[in-house]
């Protein structure tokens, strides 16, 4: 089984005794290892000491894939007498690299949490060379860590490359690194250096209260959100598009009143804008030019007798942040109420799932072409005829495949393990194991953990609106760098309080939450907040921060507002988090807006990006910024486009640093090394944050990352590692062509036999509610449902025992 690198040294051929004697007479072969200098942690940094297998001491051959290659010790050195040349003369896939030997004798010792400055001198005849790192985990052994820098092509002159590592992950005791060549051509390297970054200055004093510095603080804004928005998109001008459509109100739908608003965090104002269609429960994603593609939405509410469910139209629009207007595109091939929306590395957008115009489930994949600016006809889009459900969380992997995390909306998950990898080019679906309680991950949240280079996904919480159990505390984590990836159990979500209608009480047992929101923060952590214990009922008040490095939760200050169904949370460019909405089962709406200031905003002055040479970035670039003081890291965060706990495009992309002259006191000139892989950072606008050693971020600057039309990872010369190459789950190709998937009309978890269409009487009541009319009516009264007229003649929940056409009347309760 092939892995992303070959650990067995590749032998280039046996040297003759005559060559060995010649080497001895030149004086290049020393009799004892050459030590590292006092500051340099590299042993034999200039290859002057010979070793085994025709390689210098403490260096080894490595690589994988189908290619022709050579490793040569050459006299064309930057200093001394030797340099190392790695050359590929033919390549179909894979790479070759000379690495520091992965041994206790040779691999430099490192300290978790510290950073290291790496440097080398090089010549290259290929643009396809990068500085790559491996780390030794004390439990799991040697494994790939990350690529830090793409080397500019320098065929003649020696050039110095420097870069700073991220903080060393927990459990790591040594690292190995070198230059990987992954295209035809050669890289010659010499004079490697590695030094630990100076210790940061002492922790700054707290600028707020002790509680604020430990847990952050929430503020409920004085101005309410004027629309019933359930879709939140952070625009590249710093404003926020809040889409409501009819806002889950049948009365507004019948009146043709469809709304959106643009919120400006700078002055706290809202601008309500004309909205051409009912974009209630549509899909949305930022295109690479910064406009917002909005797909499908609500063509019609369920019928009064409950025989027809929601219907998804084929309409699609593009929202322009400059003019704040919507423009109609061509239609999709199918209706997709509650669709997925994932931007690909070439700027295209793929969409799956949702409900069609006739309320059945869509089995059609739709593809938006960035080059043609339209939805492609069905015969130009690969189809598996699979039903992925509603809002399936489809996350773009570093090699262009899609990972379905198992997070979805409304009821049970897809058949099988509930998680899968979809390969569009091969048109195959491979099941991925390990997701616990896969049918109780309804309105869970999934997020690609920081940094995206690590390819780890966290899935947390969830419930099931049909069976309506207590929502769970489960978290599961998967490492997509593994050859055969599988979810493993993560730490449970901390418990908070739950309000059953009589005020908040502590959660008990295994009670967790669905409708959970997860937001990437610029310090590399994840904020999870909001939620409810049951289907559109029983709000949970709990907020915590997840640290990917330690895989632990830290409870922090709690949003004072209920944030259940139709709520959303998202990162603002100033580093705060904004939350909106809540739509309980009685149809009411919470228009209050909350803003969270994380603890990092109470740790003294923030770094300031004082200049940004260029806001237009391309893949593989080195971009220079200046900051007012030393920083520890910088990253790109893709702005939110979130609804229903789902934002599969959210990602945090590390920008390895090359710091000019940083001695711990200055170092304000910083070069940022941009990934060459558009599948790691799909084209579009990003928030650029600079973060100091205490995790305090700057205010974001906006940068535009793009490539040529129809860019692919291969076109960009990206160093794509062959991860998740051998998942052992069940593999399926395209099924038989079909029109749709049968879906119950009550798919939204609401029984439509009672009240108006925007009132949600649950199909299944919480477990603690008895199965009698009296118990159910008491629960409905406690949750302020009011008078419920019976639609049609059917009374499936037996709430109209006296058959007067009104559920839960006095006669119904007396009859039990």
Automatic annotation (TrEMBL):
Keyword Signal present in the record's keywords: the answer is: yes
Write down the species.
Streptomyces chlorus
Transmembrane annotation, as ranges:
none
List, alphabetically, the Pfam families matched. Glyoxal_oxid_N, GO-like_E_set
Signal sequence bounds: 1-38
| PANTHER family membership | LOW QUALITY PROTEIN: ALDEHYDE OXIDASE GLOX-LIKE (PTHR32208:SF21), SECRETED PROTEIN-RELATED (PTHR32208)
Question: Is DNA-binding found in the keyword set?
Answer: no
Q: Which part of the chain is the Galactose oxidase-like Early set domain?
A: 606-704
User: Keyword set for this entry?
Assistant: Signal
Look up the domain of life of the source.
Answer: Bacteria
The protein's name is Galactose oxidase-like domain-containing protein
Identify the PROSITE patterns for this entry.
TAT (PS51318)
């Amino acid at each position: 089984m092939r892995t992303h690198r070959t650990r067995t040294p590749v032998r280039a051929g046996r040297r003759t005794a005559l060559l060995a004697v010649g080497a001895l007479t030149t004086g290049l072969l020393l009799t004892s290892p050459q030590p590292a200098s006092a500051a340099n942690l590299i042993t034999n940094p200039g290859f002057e000491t010979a070793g085994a297998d025709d390689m210098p001491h403490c260096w080894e051959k490595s690589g994988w894939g189908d290619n022709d290659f050579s490793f040569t010790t050459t006299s064309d050195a930057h200093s001394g007498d030797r340099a190392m040349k790695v050359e590929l003369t033919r390549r179909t896939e894979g790479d070759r690299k000379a690495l520091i030997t992965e041994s206790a004798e040779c691999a430099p010792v490192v300290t978790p949490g510290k950073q290291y400055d790496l440097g080398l001198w090089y010549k290259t005849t290929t643009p396809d060379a990068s500085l790559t790192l491996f780390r030794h985990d004390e439990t799991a052994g040697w494994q790939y860590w990350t690529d830090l820098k793409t080397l500019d092509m320098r065929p003649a002159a020696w050039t110095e490359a420097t870069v700073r590592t991220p903080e060393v992950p927990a459990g790591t005791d040594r690292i190995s690194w070198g230059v990987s060549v992954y295209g035809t051509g050669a890289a010659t390297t010499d004079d490697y250096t590695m030094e630990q970054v100076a210790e940061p200055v002492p922790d700054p004093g707290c600028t707020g209260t002790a509680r604020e510095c430990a847990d952050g603080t929430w503020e409920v804004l004085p101005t309410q959100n004027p629309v019933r928005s359930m879709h939140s998109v952070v625009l590249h001008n710093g404003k926020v598009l809040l889409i409501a459509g009819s806002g889950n109100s049948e009365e507004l739908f019948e009146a043709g009143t469809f709304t959106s608003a643009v919120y400006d965090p700078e002055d706290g104002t809202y601008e309500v804008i004309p909205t051409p269609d009912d974009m209630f429960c549509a899909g949305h994603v930022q295109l690479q030019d910064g406009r917002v593609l909005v797909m499908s939405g609500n063509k019609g509410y369920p019928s009064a007798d409950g025989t027809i469910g929601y219907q998804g139209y084929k309409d699609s629009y593009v929202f322009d942040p400059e003019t704040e207007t919507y423009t109609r595109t061509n239609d999709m091939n199918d209706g997709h109420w509650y669709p997925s929306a994932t931007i690909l590395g070439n700027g295209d957008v793929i969409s799956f799932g949702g409900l069609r115009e006739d309320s059945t489930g869509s089995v059609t994949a739709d593809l938006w072409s960035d080059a043609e600016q339209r939805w492609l006809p069905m015969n130009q889009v690969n189809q598996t005829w699979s039903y992925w459900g509603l809002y399936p969380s489809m996350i773009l992997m570093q090699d262009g495949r899609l990972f379905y995390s198992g997070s979805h909306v409304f009821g049970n998950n897809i058949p099988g393990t509930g998680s899968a990898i979809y390969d569009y080019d091969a048109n195959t679906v491979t099941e991925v194991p390990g997701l616990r309680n896969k049918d109780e991950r309804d309105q869970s949240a999934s997020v690609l953990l920081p940094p995206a280079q690590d390819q780890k996904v966290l899935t947390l919480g969830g419930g099931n609106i049909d069976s309506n159990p207590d929502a769970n505390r489960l978290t599961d984590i998967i490492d997509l760098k593994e050859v055969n990836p599988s979810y493993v159990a993560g730490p449970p979500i901390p418990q908070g309080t739950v309000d059953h209608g009589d005020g908040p009480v502590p959660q008990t047992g295994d009670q967790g939450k669905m409708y959970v929101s997860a937001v990437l923060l610029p310090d590399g952590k994840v904020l999870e907040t909001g939620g409810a214990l049951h289907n559109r009922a029983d709000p949970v008040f709990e907020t915590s921060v997840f640290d990917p490095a330690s895989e632990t939760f830290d409870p922090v200050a709690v949003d004072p507002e209920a944030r259940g169904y139709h709520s959303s949370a998202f990162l603002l460019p100033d580093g705060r988090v904004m939350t909106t909405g809540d739509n309980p089962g009685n149809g009411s709406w919470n228009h209050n807006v909350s803003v969270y200031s994380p603890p990092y905003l109470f740790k003294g002055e923030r770094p300031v990006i004082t200049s940004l040479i260029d806001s237009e970035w391309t893949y593989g670039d080195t971009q220079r910024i200046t900051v007012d003081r030393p920083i520890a890291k910088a990253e790109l965060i893709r702005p939110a486009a979130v609804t229903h706990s789902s934002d599969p495009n959210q990602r945090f992309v590390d920008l390895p640093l090359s710091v000019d002259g940083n001695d711990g006191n200055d170092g304000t000139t910083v070069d940022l090394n941009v990934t060459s892989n558009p599948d790691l950072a799909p084209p579009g606008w990003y928030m650029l944050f600079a973060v100091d050693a205490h995790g305090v971020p700057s205010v974001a600057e906006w940068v535009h990352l793009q490539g040529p039309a129809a860019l692919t990872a291969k076109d960009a010369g990206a160093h794509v590692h062959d991860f998740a190459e051998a998942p052992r789950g069940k593999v399926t190709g395209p099924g038989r062509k079909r029109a749709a998937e049968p879906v119950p009309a009550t798919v939204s978890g609401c029984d439509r036999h009672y009240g108006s269409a925007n009132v949600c009487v649950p199909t299944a009541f919480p477990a603690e509610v008895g199965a009698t009319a009296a118990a159910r009516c008491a629960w409905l009264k406690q949750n302020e449902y009011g008078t419920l007229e019976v639609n049609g003649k059917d009374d499936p929940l037996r709430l109209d025992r006296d058959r007067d056409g009104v559920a839960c009347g006095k006669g119904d309760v007396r009859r039990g």
